[in-house]
Design a protein that fits this description.
This protein is of the alpha+beta class. It has 7 helices and 7 strands, in the order ααββββαβαβαβαα. It has 2 domains: 38 residues, GTP cyclohydrolase I, N-terminal domain (GTP Cyclohydrolase I, Chain A, domain 1, Orthogonal Bundle), CATH 1.10.286.10; 129 residues, GTP cyclohydrolase I, C-terminal domain/NADPH-dependent 7-cyano-7-deazaguanine reductase, N-terminal domain (GTP Cyclohydrolase I, domain 2, 2-Layer Sandwich), CATH 3.30.1130.10. The strands form 2 sheets. Strands 5-2-3-6-7 form a 5-stranded mixed β-sheet, sandwiched between helices. A hairpin with a 5-residue loop joins β2 and β3. The N terminus is likely disordered. It binds guanosine-5'-triphosphate (GTP) and zinc ion. It is an enzyme of class 3 (hydrolase).
């Protein structure tokens, strides 16, 4: 997976730049399987407007299952900034690994910088990297926190994800509007009650 392709040597570069990448999807194979899948469920894939639907479906799932590569660029914390950085409302779009149906919502991420600070766009990039794969919300939340903890080496990091699961709202229990909140804390966010409270308060403001 993408986070495993990060080269060890990249961590030694001055700007701490890490490139992530994923393998190419086999769209023709996926489209053939999608046609078989849809026809088995009684969907006609031979009308003028549906003949390309299996390929559309293959492309749509390929897109939902692939994160865009990015460089994790960090900068030296020359000013010694030591207060909490909070980024709220990062959009999350993922697929539940049980039904392969979307769950969508927002992530809130905060950290206490150590020797380096992170480019702000990279929070959204990291969320996308772990969201664009079959997931459960708990694992997604933990993976984002663990990855930032490992690659940014902050004094602490906290991640909260709030999402609505379409496998819960559109089928099965058919419970619309239920929002699931998950959180993952590391370093001072876990060890220090005041830090944890500051983070959770910042999400309410
Ligand atoms: N903990 C957790 N559960 C999830 C997540 N996404 C979906 N689920 C649940 O995973 C479960 C899948 O288990 P099953 O009982 O085998 O699936 P199912 O028979 O289709 O269940 P129903 O949805 O109740 O009809 C369901 O309860 C889903 O609501 C998630 O991110 N985290
Ligand atoms: Zn599901």
């Amino acid at each position: 997976m993408s986070e495993q392709t990060v080269p060890e040597a990249a961590r030694e570069r001055p700007l701490h730049s890490i490139r992530t990448a994923q393998p190419e999807p086999q769209l023709e194979v996926a489209a053939r399987a999608a046609r078989q899948f849809l026809e088995a469920l009684g969907v006609d894939c031979d009308t003028p407007s549906t003949e390309r639907s299996p390929m559309r479906m293959a492309r749509a799932y390929a897109e939902m299952l692939s994160a865009r590569p990015f460089e994790l660029t960090t900068f030296p914390n020359d000013e010694g900034y030591d207060e909490m950085v909070v980024v709220r409302g990062i959009p999350v779009a993922s697929l539940c690994e049980h039904h392969l149906l979307p769950f969508t919502g927002v992530a809130h991420i905060a950290y206490l910088p150590g020797d380096r600070i992170l480019g702000l766009s990279k929070f959204a990039r990291v969320v996308e990297m772990f969201a664009r794969r079959p997931q459960v919300q708990e694992r997604l939340t933990k993976q984002v926190a663990d990855w930032l903890d490992e690659h940014l080496a902050p004094r602490g990091v906290g991640v909260v994800v709030e999402a609505e699961h379409s496998c819960l709202s559109l089928r099965g229990a058919r419970v619309g509007g239920a929002v699931t909140r998950t959180s993952a804390l590391a370093g001072l966010f876990r060890e220090n009650d005041a830090t944890r409270a500051e983070f959770l308060d910042a999400l309410r403001a």
